[in-house]
Amino acid sequence: MSKKKLVLKFLLIVAIISSAFAFSSCFTTIGLVSCKKSCQESCNSSEIYVSGHEYGIYYTLDDSGEFYWVSEVGYKETDVKIPEAYEGYPVMGIKHRAFEHYRQTGSCGGGYYFGMHLSSLTLPKTVKIIDIGVFGGGIDHNYHTEVATCDKLIYEGTIGDWCDMEFRSKPFYDGTKLYIDGELLTDLVIPEDVTKINENAFAYYNWFDSVTLHENFTEIGENAFEGSNIKSITFPCKDLTILQAAFFGCNQLEAVTFTGENLVLADDSIFAWCSALKEVEWNTVRITEITECTFAGCYSLESFAIPSSVEVIENRAFDGCYNLVEVYNLSKLNVLAGSTTHGGVAQYAGVVHTAEGEGGSILTVGDYKFAVSDAGVTLFKYTGDGGALNLPVLESGENYGIRREIFSGNDNILSVNIPACVTDIGDRAFANCFKLKIVSGCEGLVNIGVCAFANCNKLESVTLVVVENIEYGAFINCPALHSISLPETLKQLGSGSLGDGNAKITYAGTLEEWLAVELNAGATTDVTVTCSDGEVWEGKI
């Protein structure tokens, strides 16, 4: 090969190596440091300009090309400050998993351990979006291996800026403190020019003393105050819409007052599981619908007024409000004490007062609450712990009935004495009282409801004196029940009403009288009845 050709070949090899090195260098720069525009232009790749870092903070350019996201934060610092801009573009978002080095992580034993602890995080007012699963607040369970925990969140914007931010993740973890204008946020006062609080904005924030809204405020977003420590709040708003679960689980919230004009509960569970909530005051506010599960689990509610403007109360609106004993119905809805209709608002109520002032009153005798009305007296609530129960005799001497289900599932009741003034036992009143062994008295008992003593598997014997009607399954699944004494006053028996066929059944009337007792259709249990004249009847009940 000639000398000239050898030189040309050498130069060609050098050129190829140089080009390859430059091309490789471009992608090395992309992965490790901020990618320059010259590199972007020469590489012509959609990935060129999306990554970079500065002081342990990594960035991703938004698809719009107009702002940066914080995509990752290094783990060497416990106090992190996000800058307002990067390479001439504003920093406006925090990406999912950006703080994974500071995450809360599940352990094999079911507990949690922490990576690097994030003592403080400073966010500039340019940040407008916090992506899902960034922080460890509230119930982001699906992200518990990736979310961050932060002690001190310092925000350089205003209250209005914070309320306007897009929170795809709940920004507070347990005791996280929020500082705005250099002050710990304890009294939240919404400025006049702010009319909306966005989703998740103050969810699980535990440092509230009070929240003050204004009359032109219009909307509270989904989960906006979920799990926070608000104790009371007043809504003076002219036209207010509250979205789903806005105050869900605020277990220190005791009072809610509406003093505005128009209110829309736009979705479900808005005040659900506010377990300390005792008072809801509507004043003159107009509201047409109480949505599903709105007050579910608010078991400290003892009384509730249904505003006159309410047209619909959706299913389960008052689910689990078992201390709600008195309802004031100012609406046109047909709300009946003990009914599960209309969201169960009066399911546990003893009385329902109407707009005309009707409804009756509540009488408390020891651990027992009675509803007193023109229709009679009903024992509708028991607040004791169980043991040996002696149902009270009223000073007035009036007879009363026992409301359905009021003792149901009480596993501490060992015995119950039912005085002669008790005439009726409601459906499932003592069902599933698994330790109930002795039922005595019953001298005035006339009616026993459906499954009244069902599944009382230690109940041994029952003597009935004047009973007329025993409903379906009254003593079903009571395997220890060895004797039942029935009076000649008996008129009707429901199927399965005398248990499972194990008990010895005696009847105070004759066989002829027994044959006059009405047995409901659907009888399935084989029983033997011994009548007072010595005759024996065998058949199905």
In short:
This protein is mainly beta. The protein contains four helices and 45 strands.
Question: Which key features would you list for this structure?
Answer:
disordered N terminus; 4 helices; nine-stranded mixed β-sheet; 9% helix; mainly beta; seven-stranded mixed β-sheet; 541 residues; elongated
Task: Give a written overview of the molecule.
With 541 residues, the protein is mostly beta strands. Helices cover 9% and strands 31% of the residues. It has 4 helices and 45 strands. A 9-stranded mixed β-sheet has the order 29-30-31-33-35-37-39-41-43, with no helix packed on it. Strands 1, 2, 3, 5, 6, 10 and 12 form a 7-stranded mixed β-sheet that branches. Strands 4-9-11-13-14 form a 5-stranded mixed β-sheet, with no helix packed on it. The longest helix has 30 residues. The chain is elongated. The N terminus is likely disordered.
Distance between the termini: 116 Å
Record the strand order, biggest sheet: 29-30-31-33-35-37-39-41-43
Helix content: under 10%
How many β-strand stretches?
A: 45
- Major pleated sheet: 9 strands, mixed
Low-confidence stretches: 1-8, 10-54, 105-114, 138-145
The radius of gyration computed from the alpha-carbon positions, rounded to a whole number of angstroms, is 35 Å
Number of helices: 4
Beta-strand residue percentage: 25-35%
* Inertia-based shape: elongated
> What class, by secondary structure content?
mainly beta
Quick check: average pLDDT? 85
